[in-house]
Amino acid sequence: MQIAVNVNGTEYSRVIEPRLLLIHFIRDDLGLTGSHWGCDTSNCGACVVWLDAQPVKSCTVLAAMADGRRVRTVEGLARGDGLDPVQQGFARCHGLQCGFCTPGMMLTARWLLDRNPDPTDAEIREAISGQTCRCTGYENIVRSVRWAARREAAAAGGADRAEAGTGGDAV
Amino acid sequence: MSGHLPNSSYGAVPRKEDARFIRGKGTFIDDIALRGMLHGAVLRSPLAHARIVSIDTAAAEAHPSVEAVITGESLAGRGLAWMPTLSADVQAVLATDKVRFQGQEVAFVVARDRYSARDALELINVEYDPLPPLVDARLALHPDAPLVRDDLPGRADNKIFDWAAGDEAATEAAFAAADVVVSGDMIYPRVHPAPLETCGVVADMDQVSGRLTVWCTTQAPHAHRTLYALMSGLPEHKIRVISPDIGGGFGNKVPIYPGYVCAIVGSMITGRPVKWIEDRSENLMSTSFARDYHMHGEIAATRDGTILGLRARVLADHGAFNGAAQPTKFPAGFFHIFTGSYDLTAAHCAVTGVYTNKAPGGVAYSCSFRITEAVYLVERMVDLLARELGMDPAELRMRNLLRPEQFPHTCPTGWVYDSGDYPRALRAAMDLAGYEDLRREQAERRERGEYMGIGVSFFTEGVGAGPRKDMDILGLGMADGADLRIHPTGKAVLSVSCQTQGQGHETTFAQLVAEELGLSPDDVEVVHGDTDRTPFGLGTYGSRSTAVSGAAAVVAARKARERARFVAAAMMEVAPDDLEWSDGAWRVRGDPEQAATIGAIAMAAHSGLELPDGVDGHLDAGSVYNPPNLTFPFGAYICVTDVDPGTGQVRVRRFIAVDDCGVRINPMIVEGQIHGGLADGVGMALMQAITFDAAGNCLGGSFMDYLLPTAIECPSWELGATVTPSPHHPVGAKGVGESATVGSPAAVVNSVIDALAPFGVLHADMPLTPAAVWCAIQGRPFRSDLAITD
Predict the structure, then answer these.
(1) Interatomic CA distance for residues B170 and B176, integer angstroms
(2) Residue where a domain terminates, one of A76, A99, A116
(3) B-chain residues within 8 Å CB-CB of A98?
(4) Is A118 at the interface with chain B, CB within 8 A?
(5) Same domain, yes or no, for A91 and A69?
(6) Chain B partners of A20 at a C-beta cutoff of 8 Å?
(7) Which of A86, A154, B100, B673 is the most exposed place for a label (fewest CB within 10 A)?
(8) With contacts defined as CB-CB under 8 Å, which chain A residues touch B19?
(9) Residue A57 lies in a domain
(10) Is pLDDT at A161 greater than 70 in this prediction?
């Protein structure tokens, strides 16, 4: 079957097997390997991407279900030539070690901050509680998200947020 | 020893690795795609124990996308049906005679895409003749027990080894002299490291050059290369093993797995690269598990709380093949460090290893070769003793901890602890926790019928394996190499044998070299994970990278610095002895303004400058580091829990961890390592167990059944540090990767048992799930592992 999916702003049209999982479509058909596969059962969240404006576990979404919709992956987090504050926060606060869960964690964090610019630690923990990290014990992931929230709040006070994205420290 | 002082290049610098990972630009095994690459899939046994009657692959071979189907029989033709394990046993690559655990590899399909490979598995017809399974290790030595390993000539039972350490007679005497003897039985359940990325491989046999390239999720690429050479007969210089970015290892990625060998054979047969990526169930059901120790402990003390002796008897379940990854001399790993952090008179432990119809492997999972089990045993025993004596568990520990003046200390089973100030660490943890206030709060809550627990554990680790005279794996000594090249412009490339799986070697090792040479860490590139580009060494596990490879890097850098001294002397026309290294440069004694940095010296070393006899130019240097001893990190942990007596739910409210891992090269990375290990400890204590039913069905074969802690179960970790430099490591570092995993489970369990003290509960086995805790409160027996019956 043929599907057309907008991934990170680019339109892709592909002929696929109906049973193809979205994660395999993104990784194998489109070559966007930043999203990872980890468990097959929607437990670990290594495969989290946005489908339209919602984080989903792409190991349990059929590629066919993305037909005509928008997908955002880690490769679409940065804006222009600047890193998203969430990406900066993960690097600044040692929010990653092996880096395997990181793309999914960052996409959920971005989704959270878009809805709740000033989350409490408990709200951050709840937001990422459908995802597993085996390295960090979550502490520095929470700090990373908090750092991004503060960076965005500071930027909103002076300039627009896009500027904060490009004005961050080089990482 | 300048390394013992605060250093300019050390510190919490951001990681070099992160730039690629935050952009989704890492290269993990499944990200590798080669032209013409095929995909493999493994057919696994549904039964724990069965004779194979027949395997019919005809329908699979007829699948239009299938390029090859491999069975044990076809491997036998190449002498590859069996492979050596890391404990000098053999393991079936693909089963030929019978299957010995559920999930065992039976056939391998190579197809043009990953979905077709899976489809074709369904077309293979295997006829099994079921045999009674041996699932409960405690029945393994019964005369009527099914024989798991009838493939081993002359074998009549399921015993792998009997092994003991310590002085049995002296321990007997210590127990005879004691006022109080307390004993306890405890199971450290089978757990699985479950790195978020499963295991995988891409094998590419170039049939023209005869070169085999293996990209693989391996923590030990050099050891794998040597083993592949020994197994396959391919010359070792024609084999290249590359570890790409690894999505967590934790010991799971140390061994060679059958899928790797099958992919290599698949590439040999088809002449094309073959990729095999494990799925999650395969990872949990067939690859290296950890623990599975049935332990009986006894502790002897005087009435006033002086511990005199410790005894342990252990039954170790190694599964169907003894694939335990540990130094050859130590079949129970370093379990005999079980006297822990205490000043004991005598100790004795005896360990019996047995085969069962469960997945093979063992040791793996951040345990420092079984020190996890040892610490858990002694720390539970000390808590049981405290309960018996009516003493505060922290006070009892403080009374018995080794004192700083006793180091170096030879423990009753022979380990020589290099350094430590244990009371200082425990006091620091108690202060950070507000220990006395917590005890007051606990008493008040108990008055109100609330169940709050305070658990203490103190651990001593032994890492950095290890001295070549004592330690090898399959005959390969545990020394590691480092090569340092310094380019003419003073930029450096360090090649090391260890392999990061998230530990940040590319940053920490650059800091180590930068500090020795007065460079910026940005000027040092770290190469690792490629056998063609790095010197030999045994890799990253057992918290050995900083302790061994880090030391090798420092030694190489110091050699380069010493070479630079002669070049600098020629540059400045002074005698080498007139120079001293200070503030990042070789300086003329008494005239420190006259100086040369490594950058300037490197250019001169590559120039036409006339050098003294015996100095050939260039600054490159190499080293092989053979550690004189293990290093001995330690720490004091305190866990505060609240238990709901109605549901048995445990909430970890606080976790305080004071770690002493010697000098911290990058404290940010060190703390991150500790955070992760603490989460592991909470997971093992409360949630994680790979269990079986009586038929040998694995009950933990997915993340729906094998529960891992999330951000909800984990508290915000409260860390403290003391620094007692290792006296024999070149910069005083000790290693930290596994400390928290080793030390934390006992703190969590001690805390929960402490919370349940009003119910008279003395012990409950991990994982302390709501059901387990609720049953303990009710005084009912509970086993999460259905195969283990009381």
Answers:
(1) 10
(2) A76
(3) 195-197, 245-248, 501-502
(4) no
(5) no
(6) 115
(7) A154
(8) 91, 171
(9) yes
(10) no
Pull the structure tokens for residue A155. 């930027």
Distance from CA of B335 to the nearest CA of A (A): 25
| A contacts of B502 (beta carbons < 8 Å) | 96-99, 135
Of A19, A20, A44, the CB nearest to B703: A44
| Whether residues A65 and A113 fall in one domain | no
Q: How many domains does chain A have?
A: 2
Distances (CA, A) of B513 to B510, B526, B584: 5, 10, 12
Q: Are residues A58 and A112 in the same domain?
A: no
State both tokens at B241: 């093993």
pLDDT of A162 reads: 45
- Whether B702 sits inside 8 A of A83 (CB atoms) is no
Q: Who among A20, A43, A139 is closest to B675 (CB)?
A: A139
The answer to whether residue A171 is domain-embedded is no
Residue of B nearest to A76 (CA): B23
Q: Do A38 and B30 touch (CB under 8 A)?
A: no
What's chain A's length in residues?
171
DSSP secondary structure, B649-674, as one string: -EEEEEEEEEEE-BS-SSHHHHHHHH
**What CATH number is attached to the domain comprising A146?**
1.10.150.120
CATH of the domain at A44: 3.10.20.30
Interface residue A101 vs chain B (CB under 8 A):
yes
> Do A60 and A118 share a domain, yes or no?
no
Size of interface A-B (CB pairs under 8 A): 183
* Cα separation, A66 vs A16, whole angstroms: 12
> Tokens at residue B209, please?
């050059």
Do A90 and A161 lie in a common domain? yes
Q: Is there a contact between B637 and B743 (Cβ–Cβ < 8 Å)? A: yes
Among A21, A52, A76, the domain-final residue is A76
The verdict on residue A119 lying in a domain is yes
Token look-up 């690459």 returns B37
Q: Domain range spanning residue A22?
A: 2-76
Q: Could you give the ipTM of this predicted complex?
A: 0.97
Please indicate whether, in this complex, the C-beta atoms of B711 and A138 are within 8 angstroms of each other. yes
Task: Please check whether residues A72 and A92 belong to one and the same domain.
Answer: no
pLDDT in tens, B101-145: 999 999 999 999 999 999 999 999 999 999 999 999 999 999 999
State whether A68 and A92 are in the same domain.
no
Are A147 and A116 part of one and the same domain?
A: yes
Residues of A in contact with B193 (CB under 8 A): 134
Tens digits of residue pLDDT in B619-672: 999 999 999 999 999 999 999 999 999 999 999 999 999 999 999 999 999 999
B669/chain A closest Cα distance in angstroms: 7
Kindly report, residue by residue over B13-52, the tens digit of the pLDDT: 999 999 999 999 999 999 999 999 999 999 999 999 999 9
Cβ-count burial A49-76 (b if 16+ within 10 Å, e if not): bbbeeebbbbbebbbbebeeebbbbbbb
Inside any domain, residue A170: no
